[in-house]
Amino acid sequence: MSLPRCLCEFHTCQLMLRSRALTTMSRRCISSRVTMHPNAVAHLLPADTLLEEEKNPDYDPKRFYPAQIGETVNGKYQIISKLGFGTGSTVWLAEEMNRWPWQSSKYMALKITNCFEGDWKSANEELQMPRHISQIQLEDEGGKYVRVAEDSFVVMGPFGEHLCLVFEPLREPLWMLGRHLGTVGLSAPILKAFLKLILKGLDFLHSECHIIHTDLKADNFLIGFEDSLVIVEYVKAQIQNPGPYKEGDGRRVYQSQPDFGRFTKGTGVLKISDFGAAVFGDTTRLHYHDIQPEQFAAPEVLLGAGWTNSADIWNLGMVLWELLEDISLLDGVGPENQYDRHVHFAQMIRILGPPPVELLGRANKEVYASLSSEQGEFRHPHLMSPEDFTSESKTPSLQGEDKRLFIEFARRMLKWLPEERATARELYEDPWLSSP
Questions:
Q1: Which of 109, 221, 277, 362 is a Cys-bridge partner for 215, taking CB atoms 3.0 to 4.6 Å apart?
Q2: Tens-place pLDDT, residues 152-176
């Protein structure tokens, strides 16, 4: 959705978004109180330090909710630490209060969105998905591998209302597991095991929920806690030694504390997360807006040729190299060290060969003209990567039969034509995933 172009449209959009949010969830604009932990040690950073979300060139402190450690929001969740941030929200670990004395502590992750119409829209769309998914989730095994919001409420900030989504807390993104194990990327046996769970979850989203994620990346595959004691020990450490922060622009900005330490035994369940950009759809309805991280964008997305749920399959194929080799197979980085769509397309040609005329015929005319001549020849041959730029050369961690099977597995996802890509269900049975 583009930003409104006039004041009238702005107010109309704002009212629609807030009305939709407040009719689909309980409205509880609660004033917050601060309860500081008695043993906390302050780590105040210099005011001129740029910290986390402040480094974004479009940062506006008035949009962010001024959360503080020790604060209780919605009369129910006491904030313990900051887990992460984005351009439109911050994420916090909180303890659920008002539990009975005999109940063990319960911790949740709070995603507090900015008080800005675009961020409200994204958060509201993220709320639509769990309601739909929850109706199906208990009946399908794949639902176990999908993370959705469990609660939601509105909290009032100094410059407006902030929608807060409440999630089960998870340990860390899948890509960080390699660091715990002292490897660059994940080893093939570990990656195979987790890919089976990802494919189960993705098949559930595509086949049962008819949802296209559109933003699959290593950060959105999260691993759960292997033991409840891990989070208990983390909370104790945060209470005694909270993360650093700075004061300025009317709010505190905290340094995120996402590290829960080394794994004590095995891992928890993996879950696909972050449905802020997800859409309802399947193989029958074409979408045309831009999606996906730039380096993971499918050919039909680059060409403006219309995309369906098979764009997720291409996206997952790109993520394979991020998880296995800690690289982007196609980064689209040009001579000026910046992303360039023409360079990206040239890299696709080097990996896959020339695009089929059938796909080019579906492309947006302006995009097509900038990439190819009327005869279908690529207009920028000087951008072509060297001849040794192949999927095989980009996979040094695998050898022999294991490498051959992996490349074949990846090629089932990385097809020019969307309809030729394997489905998540078909990929689950691939020989590479069952090979030793």
A1: 277
A2: 999 999 999 899 999 999 999 999 8
